[in-house]
Amino acid sequence: MLKNLCRFLFSALIYYGMFVAPGNPALAQAVTIPGTKVPIKVPDHVTMFKPVHVVFTGKNHIRNTGKSAWFDRNAFGFIRLGGKKEETILWKSLRAKDAYQIYCKFIGGNKKLKTADMWFFVSQKLFSMPDGTTVSFQAMDKAQALCQSKPELLKFIKQIREKMSVRKTEKEEGLWGLQTAKQVAETVKKLKTDSDKLLEIVGRKITPYETKFFLCYSELPLAETRKWISLLDNMYAQCCNWFGIKIGTNIWYGKCVIFIFKNKSGYTNFEVEAMKTPAMFVERSAGINHSSSSGIVRVAFYRQKDTALFAHILVHETGHGFIHRYKSPVHVPSWANEGIVEQLAAKVTGKTRKGIVPDSIFRARSKLKRDRSFEGFFEMGHIRGWQYGLAADFMQFLYNNSGRTNRFKKLVDAFKEGKKTPEALKAAYGITIEQAMTAYGRWIHVSGLTP
Ligand SMILES: [Zn+2]
User: Fold this and answer.
1) Nearest alpha-carbon partner for 324 in 195, 415, 389
2) How far is the CA of 282 from the centre of ligand 1 (A)?
3) Each residue's pLDDT tens digit, 221-240
């Protein structure tokens, strides 16, 4: 759901990019947001009468202070305190929080700029940043407050808010359903054409390596590619086992498309240029799963030097794709989603006793012993770093208590029907969140855990 909205906002953003004429802000053309009749008008380039004071944290956590006299859709000018030379700072290179503060400086006191359209535009820009959800909604608040004479935009903003807070149900989303062999063949043909086009954007041509469930475009030697795809075949079999799917059943839309690049630069280039992923997000990623609402799952990676880490990431990200394609497109909450794929990675790479997952579990348990708090674990749109260990551990605990009726599968089924965590736990395990936490606490010998 969140992903769909994200996709929509991205497309709206690209739309602006094409239609807003550069030059004098007064000449900016009103355009309508695709799929709506909402007209919106934003200047392309703004020069300030008086430079504004800006502060932001750059790479390596260095604090930058200075002045700015202009901004546009992609960047703003920056003259460092005590300096003379102007630099161009890309919005996407900032932390979302800083970008929001700087937008406030530019727009806040400027009557001409302070419009619902402008703030709405900013909210989308922020939303496209990986850490931008919260500030994006603050900008949307500002847009909403200025919407008196813009009933259409107001209605649209309300719709977005509703989408964000209401989890869709399986009934609304529908089931994925399985493709016939003929449909698979047709879809794969199309996926191949699309993959060629995507690779062409970054000047690459790769002959795919294909198995029953995977279509892999790899820059690695064939023998190595084979080894990695066979690991993913094992992952697939493990998932089928967990979710009670008959061996040999193809749950993908066509096949799952995997891209493996030799190095990070090739990967980054592909993600940014071909997949249109914000550079800031790509920068801190090691693999990205693109599970689309159309059903297509594409996952891109680069070969990490550390073989164990690479194997882990490969299974983790592709595992997200499997969860996406399981039953319905309804999103499984972050804690469960990450918990399942972390367990999957540990299990399939044979590192259940030593390695990345056991280490992160150890760290999470130590933290729980100290702080005794899950820190909003069950509610979060995206769990935080230390909680990955907790997610893996908590999932192991649920799996251990799955019983003969496969409560573990029932839990995921409940999510896929659109139930939230409390109802899903109740439906599958017959317990509340508090009871689950107490039982888990007993298992790890930590009492008094709070959500
Ligand atoms: Zn993940």
Assistant:
1) 415
2) 14
3) 999 999 999 999 999 999 99
